Amino acid sequence: MEKNVFSASSERKLYKLSGQGFFEALESPLSIGKEANIFTARTRDGGLIIVKIYRLENCNFNGMYDYIRPDPRQFGLKRGKRNIIFAWVQREYRNLMKAREVIRVPTPLAYKDNILLMEFIGDDTPALKLKDDLEKSIAPLFFKKTVRAMRDLYRAGLIHGDLSEFNILNWQGEPIFIDFSQGTTVDNPNAEEMLERDVRNVCRFFGKFIPVDEGKVMSVIKK
Predict the structure, then answer these.
(1) What whole-number distance in Å separates Cα of residue 104 and Cα of residue 48?
(2) Exposure on the CB side of residue 46, measured as CA atoms within 13 A
(3) What are 116-131's pLDDT values in tens digits?
(4) Measuring CA to CA, how many Å separate 66 from each of 7, 34, 39, 97, 182?
(5) How many domains does the chain have?
(6) Does a structural domain hold residue 30?
(7) Domain boundary at 78, 97, 119, which?
(8) Whether this model's pTM surpasses 0.85
């Protein structure tokens, strides 16, 4: 564990999760961000999982609250930094659990306050994000698969809310949606705006490879 990467409180929670058998030890950092750090961790059987640790001292909890507050599932959430961050992590876990019923996402394994454990997508190395791994020859099919996943998610009552080439993995030619912390239900007052943003971001990226039409994509998703 790198010094100052996470707090003593997070270390205690990691120790507890490890003691419960979810993993043996943290390994490589995949991302050291302002608000969250993402590590791989080795399991007892030699496999890998993902450990996402939100940094309590750095998280923009006011911004998180603005996202969470309209979500009907968070009715009655009290303000307070720790309350909001813990609710944010729980929300991401719940979003992944719901999403995995209809599309391919990392399976959530457990959460504890500001820590989320998830399935590792890849072999010995992590699957690449779409921004780093899309050949023009497969762009048309990959686009169709991505739009289909967005449609299936919408039919299940969920919107990703932050979808882009940064939050889609290309694993064996299949789109894997990740980073569901901003995901919300379709009855959220901001749902339409969030869906439009997802469509706009996806079309902007794929528009570099193939002709796309935002209106048609939206009609397919909401059909």
Answers:
(1) 18
(2) 2
(3) 999 999 998 999 999 9
(4) 25, 19, 27, 23, 11
(5) 2
(6) yes
(7) 119
(8) yes
Q: Annotated catalytic sites, by residue?
A: 162, 179
| DSSP, res 73 | G
Distance CA 2, CA 18 (A): 17
Check whether residue 115 and residue 141 sit in a common domain.
no
Residue 112's closest CA among 210, 220, 203, 6?
A: 6
3-state helix, strand, coil in the chain (%, to 5): 40, 20, 40
Give 181-210 pLDDT, tens digit per residue.
889 999 988 999 999 999 999 999 999 999
Residue 1 falls inside a structural domain: no
Q: Which domain holds residue 102?
A: 8-119
Tell me the CATH number at 201: 1.10.510.10
95 with 133, same domain?
Answer: no
**Count of CB atoms within 10 A of residue 57's CB?**
10
Nearest Cα residue to 118 out of 39, 31, 25, 11: 39
